[in-house]
Amino acid sequence: MIHAIAAITMLAQQCAPEIATEAVVPLVVTESGGDDLAININKGPRVRAASIADGAALVRRYMAAGYTVDVGLAQVNSANFARLGVTVEQAFDPCTNLRLASSILRAGYGLAIQHYTGLDAISATYSLYNTGTLTRGFRNGYVGRVWSAASGMGTIQTPPPIPGSASASASAPTATPASAKQGIAEASWVVGQIDSSAVQVFK
Q1: Secondary structure of residue 40 in the 3-state scheme
Q2: Is pTM, for the whole model, over 0.90?
Q3: What does the alpha-carbon distance between residue 162 and residue 172 come to, in Å, rounded to a whole number?
Q4: Is the Cβ–Cβ distance between 130 and 147 less than 8 Å?
């Protein structure tokens, strides 16, 4: 089923309340286009599932063959299933999938704020989600695509410069390491819904 942005937003609010919808929805749009049956066989063939049962069978087949597989709305990687305590079928459930993505994003943000501040920390979190590294997602274009999706939805006016890019270098100094306390103060939306009385990163 393809979910519209409004439906993804509602699901994110219900199922991943620890992460602001402004963070989750652009990621989901970038990852799956809102398709809760989306499957990506990493370094493998393109496949399409007709149902959760069909999708689970495909995922298990390719996992058994040594592939990692990205599943569902937020394209959660199969390498996380055992650690997060879910079955393949559960990973396809939209609410469960967003809950898993929330857990991965929060862990990534905890690492990112040790090295970056503000929006750079958020960009690094997206890079970690996509590649498992703080910077590879800058170079492969993934982080830029997520910010472009956010811009297209109106949650930000323009995508921020990507750390280390020519535009970032021209507009601001290279991001400097920050303590966790500084990072959370500058980008608190990542760990909860935006407080309407506070400065909003995206508005």
Answers
A1: strand
A2: no
A3: 11
A4: no
pLDDT in single tens digits along all 203 residues of the chain = 899 999 999 999 999 999 989 999 999 999 999 999 999 999 999 999 999 999 999 999 999 999 999 999 999 999 999 999 999 999 999 999 999 999 999 999 999 999 999 999 999 999 999 999 999 999 999 999 999 999 999 888 888 999 877 555 444 333 333 333 233 333 444 433 333 333 233 32
Contact (CB, 8 A) for 153 and 25: yes
* DSSP assigned state of 191: G
Residues recorded for the chain: 203
Can you read off the two tokens belonging to residue 48?
């399409």
* CA separation for the pair 126, 203 (Å, rounded): 19
* C-alpha triplet 153, 133, 139: angle, nearest 5°: 60
C-alpha dist (Å) from residue 68 to 38, 62, 110, 158, 163:
14, 7, 24, 34, 28
CB 178 within 8 A of CB 116: yes
Distance of CA 18 to the CA centre of its chain: 13
For the chain, first and last CA: distance in Å? Answer: 30
Which residue in the block uniquely carries the two structure tokens 């997520």?
Answer: 146
Look up residue 24 and give its amino acid. V
